Amino acid sequence: MPNLTKDDIRIVIDTIKEVYLADKIPWICGYSGGKDSTAVVQLVWTALSELPEEKLHKPVHVISTDTLVESPVVALWATRSLKRMKDAADSPDKKLPIIPHRLVPEVTNTFWVNLIGRGYPYPRRDFRWCTDRLKIDPSNRFIKKILDAESEAILVLGTRKAESATRKAVMEGYEKKRYRDHLSPNGSFPNSYVFTPIENWSNDNVWQYLVQYPNPWGHSNKDLLAMYSGASADGECPLVLDTSTPSCGNSRFGCWVCTMVSEDKSMAAMIQNDEEKAWMLPMLEFRNKIAATLEEDRERRDFRRMDGHLTWHNARLVHGPYTQETRKKFLTCLLEVQELVHEIGPEEIKNVPLITKAELRLIRQIWLDEKHEFEDLLPKIYESVTGKPYEDGTISKNKYFGPAEASILREACQSVCPDETLMYEMQRSLLDIEAKAAAISNKRNVIQNFEQEIKKAFYRDEADAAHIAEERAKKIAGMQEAFDDENWTE
Length: 490
Fold this sequence. Notes:
By secondary structure, the chain is of the alpha/beta class. The chain folds into three domains: 6-220, 3-Layer(aba) Sandwich (Rossmann fold), CATH 3.40.50; 294-386, no CATH class; 410-469, no CATH class. Helices cover 49% and strands 6% of the residues. It has 18 helices and eight strands. A six-stranded mixed sheet has the order 3-2-1-4-6-5, sandwiched between helices. It has a two-stranded antiparallel sheet with strand order 7-8. Strand 2 (60-65), helix 3 (72-89) and strand 3 form a beta-alpha-beta unit. The N and C termini lie far apart (66 Å). Mean pLDDT is 88; it is low at 233-251.
């Protein structure tokens, strides 16, 4: 619609009331703190405020997912908004059944645990491991919890057909399957439905509404507009757009470490447009360091896959997880950036960690238990960068071997087998497995684990592994060529 009128807004509010009163199915509103979700929650809030107290018969859960790598500016914005929302909804003047929730990914799924802990290569088009773990899984776990308790749920979302041609086609496809007015089926969960109150609004309409109608829980819509404006390259945020006019109406705030785009334009624009955001520059530089070219990134990774197998593709090995040295550098740099941001950033940023203590704890555990790196580098890195003692008594270390023994072992392997680049890694793993097995009565899997580690280090170096993988690929190709389908008999 070209221009939003009071009648248009009244129609949406009345529709929300109609859908709310039609049943006892609980609502779940998605809220990111961005313009679309803010508009929807604000409309829902207004609609519920107009209902008498006795008709506020079911809860409206407002869920906001913090990936823990959101832009600190946006994360703070959303967190403060949720707090104000809760305070306003609990007001004795007009208590509303609106319940805000801040959702976070499970610690085993966070970005840093997977990138630095397990060594996953940074997310890219053919390996987009982040979205499900960081965004979708926390929301799905919450929705499933509501479905388990209530059997049904209605998702209230700010999706709009004007966002893209693809979005429009998907929404119109679900419209044809609506089981009643305004409620489309949810393709992810049975017995859940999707309600999209502003599905026919344009970007202009959303901004017109937000600017003209104050936020009912006290979070400034003008500040939201300024935040979008700061995230656009030209610093402008026009409400009336044409195809040639860049607009922050199309801006999207994402994770500050996002590598799915070639350049983080929103963070770069924030820094460019506001001198007070200059403290974010170290974060942008670190993000760019992670998002190296594919060829540069390949050199930072092990030539074997996570399980030690070789993959031959396009006449070379497909590299796997990041090496120990790369993971060490990433963690060191991240902690240095965190220290610098806390030093030069505004007061409200000083208590916002870029990596949490729980993540550090799990990364250390992965390095010790899964990678068999009994050098135990993480406490030393943490203390070296922060100048603070690393305190964590929850992890049981290898009681026989530590950094000193690792150093002796490395020197011995290099002295005895200078051409065997994987010898140290194999010996370290075997010693760690044996030492940990000494405290276990059931040693059934020890031999199997030994064999697995020996197979991982079967090669002298990457060149040797590449030769073996290439010969294997040639044999397989030869067998396929020799296979004559016409002569095949069962």
